[in-house]
Amino acid sequence: MFLGLIFITPPGGAAGPLGIGRACFAGGWVSGANSNIIDYITVASTGNAIDFGDLTVARTYVGGSASDTRGVFGGGQGDAVTIDYVTVASAGNATDFGDHAATGNGRSTASGGSLTRCVFSCEWASNIIEFITIASAGNATDFGNQTHSSQELGAGGDSTRLAFGGGNANIIDYVTIASAGNATDFGDLNNSVNENGGCDNSTRVTFFGGGSLNVIDYVTTQTTGNATDFGDLQAAKNLVGGAGAMDRGVCVGGYSSVDVIGYWDLTSPGNATDFGNLTIAGYGHSGFSDQHGGLQ
Hints:
mainly beta, single chain, 296 residues, 4-stranded antiparallel beta sheet
């Protein structure tokens, strides 16, 4: 007897992977000033970035994450308070979402989350963590604290756990995304770095760049312990942005190669490969995708 096939539709999308595989990168320090530019790429392909629209306020070192449909950017040098959002599949200017609660600590460069929640490390020599519910515009809420004060670090995780790494140290912390509370020690990076980036798939987080290094480290998200060497970026650089989509990680910008985009296969350690270029040279970008590890 033929019983037929059953397709389960995940929340917010059609059957199959969530999102459309798009990554957006926003803000940055461009030509001596904060930028409001948002670029996007299709992560599964290669090629140059395309203009998406503009942030509501020009700024550098913003934080970002996304659900399968909506992306958010928060804080940053130039405006430590404002949180914006965009509809990932529809290019256009950002809309005001709400405000960070911890004013003055707004270089929220490390962020990530799940289908429902974005968690920001509201840093610049602080240990504050905040969160928002992505589908509901409003102000951020206190989440807890990191184990140490940090600045300009990377982040990534899966649907339940988010890890923060670097930030002028070799420390990796983690939090449980759905449960507000203080961070717990995860392990250590191979180097003490700051101004580094992070990206993820459903099982692995890679941390990359920072200081004058080209290194990529990785951890298995659900297994605490020290990071392992993954490979190298195309060049040593700091103040980088990153995003992961399905099994590909992407690094953009950076102080020494300021419009370059590189990528790597998150499932297989190795060096980064050239992807293309941003629409404009800069550094201190933030990025997210609609297929990052927290959505898989």
